[in-house]
Amino acid sequence: MLEACGVASAEELFSHLPDEVRLKRPLDLPAGISEYEIVQYFRDCGAASAAGYTGFLGAGVYAHYRPVLVDTVVSRGEYLTSYTPYQAEISQGTLTTIFEFQSMICQLTGMDVANASMYDGSTAVPEAAMMAARATGRGGVLVARSVHPEYREVLATYARYQGMPLAEFGYHPETGALDLEDLERQINDLTAAVIIQSPNFFGVVDQVRAAAEIAHRRGALLIVVFTEAVSLGILEPSAAADIVAGELQSFAISPSYGGPFAGIIATREKFIRQMPGRLVGETKDSRGNRAFCLTLSTREQHIRREKATSNICTNQALIALMATVFMTVYGKQGLRELAEQNLAKAHYLAGKLPLRFSGPFFNEFVARVEDPDGLNKALLKKKIIGGLPLGRFYPELKDAMLLCATEMAPRKEMDVLAEVFSSAGVPSRLVFS
Amino acid sequence: MYPENFRYTKEHEWVLVEAGIGTIGITDHAQQELGDIVYVDLPKVGAAVDQGKSLGSVESVKAVSDVYSPVSGEVIEVNHALSEAPEKLNQDPHGDAWLVKVRLTAPGEISNLLSAAEYQSYIGAEK
């Protein structure tokens, strides 16, 4: 290589660098080791620091079992391509799975139509808000503070650059559910969308119908967000919603430090032309056989850029396929049983802890604790990853922790967590204000 | 074919002005060129439209086309029947399937438009 560069030595190659910045000794690095030794090294590190822990963190990313079939299917070369092929003549397999995905999302959400997926739950929310603005011809957005705080940040970023006035309304300090009176006070005739989450960020199954009634009375649309898709296996679909926007990470998508995940948008048929993203429809080929193709593409930016409903011109096909395989493996009954297990585990754990809110919950809930960070440190010593200290997002909830128990939570660790909690003590000040 | 009392644009819209109110539609030639129409996107009552600017769009199985307003004014009525039955635009583009009615703000603009005879010779030339 030196010869190709036209220099005689490494010394000559770097001769243009000033003497004072040049290192005069060899780099302080250990000698090279074999690939086998590297793999072993990281195995040992993993065993020492990460193995054998039980987690009770939820807050938008959940620890669920991933059936082995999921990776078997998504690893197939036909699916594992660098880009999603949409050309109907060569892509019936991919298009069929997307159609299956859309159909199952419709069944779970009770909506008429679902798109081929969004990047994730957080970006699905502002896309749904913009969709509501187009459908109503209004611009204002009212979002509940009990929607995931990071989703609200993403929404605020979109709203700022879309010129959409954005305001927040509160939650009930006792139940953790929506403060419907605050919603009534703030909603007006410029409100395009009311955005709520259920189960909400505190885990509380919220008042979708009541919120829908208030929104619809003022001509606004109701957007219902979910972060925990497993809840759809047991909760009534949000039939009162106009748009459902959510995150499918719970459906066999591994946490992977926060992504990639897959989001969804589902809606009523009358809003279909305002919907962002890809949509696969069923049709017939030239021989009359059932076939699938992209449909209603005139909403998309590769057809009419300036009038497109969104700048999303793709979908999370491979990740959404994980969710599709998951839904297929579990089926309707299996998903219901899974949801019931989650419900039972979380309620077992919650029964041993001082709760902050009284509203009904699925697999997440808020517990009171004087020093959440100190408690988490104590739990780590027992190989338990505790909950999310809520003070980070809600200054008024400094003495509260969001906990989650899924089907993966063993009873023994739940009991240990409860013991550490009781030795930490409950905050003395009154919490039900 | 093309009513004498209408005025036409080169973008294939027509307008019939009566007592300061313009009824706007797309021409028979336009619907033929578009093919089966599946969706019509129209402005809301109260919206302002400008001559030569888009007031909505018509989607057929082949394409989506903007509808350019032949006159400036305020939308006072929208043909909601088209959202339920867009195919009417293929059946009766000069009659039942009008798109919007506007109150003209610049009636003099009519002189910029084509007569029936001029439009017919224009589409003859286009073909």
Q: Any overview of this molecule?
A:
The complex is a heterodimer of chains A (433) and B (127). By secondary structure, chain A is of the alpha/beta class. Residues 429-433 of chain A have low confidence and may be disordered. Helices cover 35% and strands 14% of the residues of chain A. In chain A, helix 9 (208-217) links the parallel strand 5 and strand 6 (221-226). Chain A has 3 domains: 2-49, no CATH class; 54-65 and 332-424, Aspartate Aminotransferase, domain 1, CATH 3.90.1150; 68-326, Aspartate Aminotransferase, domain 2 (3-Layer(aba) Sandwich), CATH 3.40.640. Chain A has a 7-stranded mixed β-sheet with strand order 2-8-7-6-5-3-4, with helices on both faces. Chain A has a 3-stranded antiparallel β-sheet with strand order 11-14-13, with no helix packed on it. Chain B is of the alpha+beta class. Chain B has a single domain (11-109), classed as RNA polymerase II/Efflux pump adaptor protein, barrel-sandwich hybrid domain (OB fold (Dihydrolipoamide Acetyltransferase, E2P)), CATH 2.40.50.100. A 6-stranded antiparallel β-sheet of chain B has the order 1-2-3-9-8-5. A 3-stranded antiparallel β-sheet of chain B has the order 4-6-7. Chain B is globular and about 35 Å long. Chain B starts with 6 loop residues before the first strand and ends with a helix.
Explain the layout of strands and helices.
The complex is a heterodimer of chains A (433) and B (127).
Chain A: H1 2-5, H2 10-13, H3 35-49, E1 54-55, H4 68-74, H5 92-109, E2 113-114, H6 121-136, E3 140-144, H7 149-162, E4 166-169, H8 180-186, E5 191-197, H9 208-217, E6 221-226, E7 243-247, E8 263-267, E9 280-284, E10 290-294, H10 317-350, E11 364-368, H11 372-381, E12 384-385, E13 388-389, E14 400-404, H12 411-424
Parallel strand pairs in A: 1-12, 3-4, 3-5, 5-6, 6-7
Antiparallel strand pairs in A: 2-8, 7-8, 9-10, 11-14, 13-14
Chain B: E1 7-8, E2 13-18, E3 21-26, H1 28-34, E4 37-41, E5 48-49, E6 54-60, E7 64-68, E8 73-78, H2 81-84, H3 88-91, E9 100-104, H4 116-126
Antiparallel strand pairs in B: 1-2, 2-3, 3-9, 4-6, 5-8, 6-7, 8-9
